[in-house]
Amino acid sequence: DAGITQSPRHKVTETGTPVTLRCHQTENHRYMYWYRQDPGHGLRLIHYSYGVKDTDKGEVSDGYSVSRSKTEDFLLTLESATSSQTSVYFCAISEGGGNTEAFFGQGTRLTVV
Amino acid sequence: GESVGLHLPTLSVQEGDNSIINCAYSNSASDYFIWYKQESGKGPQFIIDIRSNMDKRQGQRVTVLLNKTVKHLSLQIAATQPGDSAVYFCAENSGGSNYKLTFGKGTLLTVNP
User: Fold this and answer.
1) Do A107 and B43 touch (CB under 8 A)?
2) Mind listing the pLDDT tens digit for each residue in A77-103?
3) For residue A105, what is the nearest residue in chain B, using CA coordinates?
4) Alpha carbon separation from A27 to A40, A56, A67, B1, B47 (Å, rounded)
5) Cα-flanking dihedrals φ and ψ of residue A84, to 5°?
6) What is the pLDDT of residue B101?
């Protein structure tokens, strides 16, 4: 999986609790992404990063924040989890952003009850 | 558990037949396109890419065709095998973005032995 590790792989949490998902890469790629995948919606971009401490919103960023303090780590935080955030979350990395392929992690299945 | 295949267009073929999966993209300024394969429970995997200065590119058993006039992308899989059963996504760097890719909703390919 191109040196991408997501943790945890599965998580069940209660509504209103904070949750942080971690993506770690060993490829030294500049770009990192968080997507969510839901039936009928495909992959939707939450946030992305184009360098250390450089991040921007995707199409479904409400309720999520991110941080990238090191090249290799990109954290996704749900400040107060809601049931609508139950999903499978994928991290991806890319050397060239929109000009080269992105490589995906194995995903994190998050259930908010 | 939920399947990313729910509510998706589906294509069912016999083992050994050729498969053609289609994708209509949205932005005429997009200049980079990728096909991904996603097996159940896994992250999307890169198959093949094409840039807008080409209209055809071939890989091992796969060919991607790009028709910029009608904003259409297709993936042809030769001699389809049961291991090809998966959801296939097209992606574009919408509008020529240097940062990110936008994904289609996917097509579920089922190969019957």
Assistant:
1) yes
2) 999 999 999 999 999 999 988 888 999
3) B43
4) 32, 21, 18, 32, 19
5) -70, -10
6) 87
Rounded distance between C-alpha atoms, residue B113 and residue B78, angstroms = 15
Q: Which of B62, B18, B53 is nearest to B32 (CA)?
A: B53
- Of A75, A17, A72, A24, nearest to A46 by C-alpha is A75
Structure tokens at B84: 């090809």
Judged by a CB distance cut-off of 8 A, whether residue A104 touches chain B is yes
Provide the residue type at B7 as one letter: H
Give me the residues of chain B with pLDDT under 70, please: 1-7
Q: Which two tokens stand for residue A32?
A: 């990192």
What pLDDT is attached to residue B4? 43
- Judged by CB atoms closer than 8 Å, whether chains meet at A98 and B32 is answered as yes
H or E element: which one contains A76? strand A73-78
Tell me which amino acid residue A63 is.
G
CA atoms lying within 13 Å on the CB side of residue B57: 15
Residue A1 has a pLDDT of: 52
- Cross-strand partners of A66: A76
Query: Percentage of chain A with pLDDT > 70?
Result: 98
**The two structure tokens encoding residue A101:** 């392929």
- Closest to A98 (Cβ–Cβ): which among B2, B93, B105? B93
Q: In Å, what is the CA distance from B85 to each residue of A22, A101, A107, B28, B37? A: 30, 22, 19, 30, 9
Which 3 state secondary structure label does DSSP give A98? helix
What pLDDT was estimated at residue B97?
75
